[in-house]
Design a protein that fits this description.
Distance between the termini: 33 Å
Radius of gyration: 18 Å
Helix content: 25-40%
Number of helices: 10
Number of strands: 14
Order of helices and strands: EEEHEHEEEHEHEHEHHEEEHHHE
Structural class: alpha/beta
Largest sheet: 10 strands, mixed
Length: 302
């Protein structure tokens, strides 16, 4: 079984406009409302791929109940824990560019965290745990590491976070981490652009404890440093960017799906890039058909 954790789920309100003028009345050309959060996105793509997956995390008040209901309607199993406060609404404003306004979200107490830890303690060998996205700053930057310490060491762990929230998990030897190129630059305090520098920084993260490091680079594809000492790179297929939201989460989902199925890092990399691209080229999250249509278009670089 695969479990994803979303500490701060959201109700994502995506609106499209021909143009936007500050201080004026602006009218949309289309609107969409869906449950969001990085871990939830990962779970939804895995479900679309036919994988048994459950979404863990927290929700609060009326907005939270809408999120839970939307997950149920999508057929996604979830064990979200009710917490204090109101779940957040994130606004995605799409014109020629995409602007995001993200809410603060719910209050998570020590008792709430203990309820989540109790669920994580039940995970068994060969289960997969994905900790994905941000956590409220008042939880501190070691909250993911604290959760990992509750988990059976044989559980396969995946971390998709940024900054110290990610760095503090490396001592727990996660199976996979997936910073994007901007997050990698932030981690090392410099603008990283060259392949050589990407590999150097990824190796540094491996030396700190990560077994496999997947660096996503948007339209340029991704570079994977695996636990066997290999450096694998693949280019993304050509296509028109429609929606960047959830593309990185889809890459994580595709990678996990293919690795568990084939036990092969090259297959996982190919499937991860195809999944991320399929979402980027779609209005919403990728489905199985759109992912598999792109697999042969992912260019492997040796």
């Amino acid at each position: 079984m695969i479990y994803t954790v979303t500490m701060n789920p959201s109700l994502d309100y995506t609106v499209k406009l021909q143009n936007f003028t500050e201080g004026k009345v602006n009218r949309t050309t289309s609107e969409a409302l869906c449950a969001g959060g990085k871990g939830i996105n990962v779970a939804l793509v895995l479900k679309a791929l036919g994988v048994n997956v459950k979404a863990l995390g927290f929700y609060g008040s009326d907005i939270g109940k809408i999120i839970v209901n939307k997950l149920k309607l999508s057929g996604l199993d979830n064990l979200l824990i009710e917490a204090e406060g109101q779940s957040r609404i994130n606004i995605k404003l799409c014109t020629n560019e995409q602007t995001e306004i993200n809410g603060r979200g719910i209050n998570i107490t020590a008792d709430d965290l203990n309820k989540l830890k109790a669920l994580l303690k039940k995970l068994n060998k060969n289960d997969v745990l994905v900790l994905s996205g941000s956590a409220r700053s008042d939880l501190g930057d070691k909250v993911y590491s604290a959760l990992l310490k509750e988990v059976n060491p044989d559980v396969i762990t995946v971390i998709d976070a940024c900054g110290k929230l990610l760095l503090n998990t490396l001592c727990d030897n996660p199976f996979l981490i997936k910073p994007n190129i901007d997050e990698l630059s932030e981690l090392f305090g410099e603008d990283i652009k060259t392949r050589e520098k990407i590999i150097e920084c990824a190796k540094s993260l491996q030396n700190k404890g990560a077994k496999n490091v997947l660096i996503s680079m948007g339209a340029k594809g991704a570079i994977l440093l695996n636990q066997n000492g290999d450096v694998l790179e693949a280019k993304a297929p050509n296509g028109t960017l429609v929606n960047a939201v959830g593309a990185g989460d889809s890459m994580v989902a595709g990678f996990i799906y293919a690795f568990l199925k084939d036990n092969d890092f090259l297959s996982a990399l190919r499937y991860g890039i195809a999944s991320g691209s399929a979402t980027a080229f779609s209005e919403g999250l990728a489905d199985r058909e759109s992912i598999e249509a792109l697999l042969d278009k992912v260019k492997i670089i040796y």
